[in-house]
Amino acid sequence: MEYYAERYRVGLVQIILSDQEVIELKSAEKGPLDFIERVVERVPALYDHVPLREQKDVVERSGITLTMTF
């Protein structure tokens, strides 16, 4: 798994839960955020910095419009 995570530049995490905790999660007795401390990053996702100018160009070329309402 680590080999492929590094090769394809994706992160890899591990979440360790007991059988009882899985049952509680599936039955909605507890939510996903109740187990957030159980997440362990095994291989960090690689990130290449993209300048804001290039990000702006991609958004403009894609035709995406950003709207906000309050």
Runs in which pLDDT lies below 50 for 5 or more consecutive residues are none
Total count of helical runs of at least 4 residues: 3
Q: In the residues, how many domains can be counted?
A: 1
- How much of the sequence lies in strands comes to 5-15%
Shape: flat
What does this structure look like?
The mean pLDDT is 89. 36% of the residues lie in helices and 13% in strands. The termini are far apart. A two-stranded antiparallel sheet has the order 1-2. The protein is built from 3 helices and 2 strands. The protein has one domain. It is of the alpha+beta class and 70 residues long.
Topology overview:
Blueprint: H1 2-7, E1 12-15, H2 19-26, E2 39-43, H3 52-62
Antiparallel strand pairs: 1-2
Key attributes of the depicted protein:
two-stranded antiparallel ribbon; 70 residues; alpha+beta; 36% helix; 3 helices; single chain
Short note summarizing the structure:
With 70 residues, the chain is an alpha+beta fold. It has helices at residues 2-7, 19-26, 52-62, and strands spanning 12-15, 39-43. Strands 1-2 form a two-stranded antiparallel sheet.
